[in-house]
Amino acid sequence: MVRPYRFSLEEFLKLPLPERGVELLEGEIYQMAPIGPRHAYAVNRWNRVFSSLPEVFVQVQGPLALPPDTYLEPDLALLRPGDYRERLPRPEDVLLVVEVADASLDYDLTKKVPLYAKAGVPEVWVQDLLGGKLLLFRTPEEDHYREQIWVRPGERVSPLAFPEAFLEVPW
């Protein structure tokens, strides 16, 4: 019987892969689509918005390890302050993940969001560039989020970790 080989996080991190553009989801390697101008602009806008928050480390398109067999590169992650020189951020370090979806909406919603929930990431925002809205996922429970809220550009939202910070959803 022929079976695909499933990689552990440790094995994946040792592979000679390109520096960006691949993720490991439950042992399977996925090639990511190239980042286009709309996607890059949206990520840069979110970075600017979140950089004003106190006591947070804003990580742009960096690694997030979900042991034992998942390695993601969310577009943006708000991390608890800490020293990440010797280890990759893990779910307990994450306050919020933002995924910007141009052509990747289905992948983000059906593959990545359930993994974030399963890992206990408290909040995930998915910006749907084609649909012109932002989907907030809150309260992880098993492989899903109990709360899902659609927000339009121009409306104001607050991350759960920063309820006093009302941020305008960029477009």
TrEMBL record:
Pfam families: Uma2 (PF05685). PANTHER family: SLR1083 PROTEIN. Residues 9-166 form the Putative restriction endonuclease domain. This is Putative restriction endonuclease domain-containing protein. InterPro entries: Nuclease_put_TT1808, Restrct_endonuc-II-like, Uma2.
